[in-house]
Write a structure and sequence with these properties.
The protein is α+β, with helices and mostly antiparallel strands. Strand 15 (318-324) and strand 16 (330-334) form a beta hairpin. Helix 3 packs antiparallel against helix 4 (146-178). The strands form three sheets. Strands 1, 14, 15, 16, 19 and 20 form a six-stranded mixed β-sheet that branches. Strands 2-9-12-11-10-13 form a six-stranded antiparallel barrel. Strands 6-5-3-8 form a four-stranded antiparallel β-sheet, with no helix packed on it. The radius of gyration is 48 Å and the shape is rod-shaped. The chain has five helices and 20 strands.
Length: 381
Amino acid sequence: MTNKLNAAFSKPVEIAQFILSVVLITFLSACSGGKSEPPKKPAVPVTAAAVIQKTVPVQINTIGNVEAYSTVSVKSQIGGILDHVHFREGQDVNKGALLFTIDPRPYEAALKQAEANLAKDAAQLENAREEVRRYAELVKKGYVAQEQYDQIRTNAAAFEATVNADKAVVENARLQLKYCYIYSPFNGRTGNLLSHQGNLIKANADNPMVIINQIQPIYVTFSVPEQYLAEIKKYMSGGKILVKVFITTEKDNPEEGVLTFVDNTVDAATGTIKLKATFTNNKKRLWPGQFVDVVIVLTTQPNAIVVPSQSVQTGQKGQYVFVIKDDLTVEDRFVTAGGTLNSETVIEKGLQAGEKVVTDGQLRLVPGAKVQLKEKTGGSK
């Protein structure tokens, strides 16, 4: 082989030129296959929703506590044996319903005694008045002295005062007898029974016999930051402010009431103002002591731009959304977000109705990325 190469190339320079030509031809052959393009990135699967325009309510969300409209601690104004309980624990009672009977016999006897004293003194008064009439005629005729007549008149006046005092005693005895029967002051629901039949009841005891709560209507008490006070006063002056409360287990069925009370002082410790709303509570779904979610509907905002809340992202420069363009690429667009309602966010600036925004899959996106819609949604309804 060496001999053949020596025969073909008689000089070393020619051998070097030959080797260089072979290397150059090999390199050019490798490059002659054409330039290879970098692989294209696959489209990112995402879900999207349309930006829509609609009327949305302007509202404040907070947490509230249900309170009884009225509460009364029933106590006896007289002492005695509890003769009868006319209701069951936890029973609804109407206004004027008989709740308790204190043994009335001692008070009936006291009333009879007072009436007897009144009758006796009334008879003596009548006799004294007759004497006054008789002595008046005798004084005119000079048969008796004026001093004796004056004494008879004084005795009659004293008997009259005694009769009046007896009448007051009778009225008080009747009142004490009336206190033997304790009635409900309003429609409400009774609580735990603390005094049972046969117990000795003290007048105006420290502990009540039962507590009654009025739950129709009923209050819901809540607090909001003082920054909302001006708006609340503004809309209250223009009409009623609707308040909705949501029970934890029944989120789709709120109770509706009206804001009826704004406290006269802002709590300096918390920077909040106390409010109350009144509810008819016809179905008795609201119960004293219950915690509820409260929504104060101040007004409505027409023609608002709305997107699903999950489409709004937060970055170093603020809030933004990925907008899908006609060529199925995305751009990140900064927006000014307003309030949120039912998983929808109002966009005050940055979007127009009809545009599409990404609602899921944002973590894999960069500006200009190609996307593939997994499913089409109609956006917020």
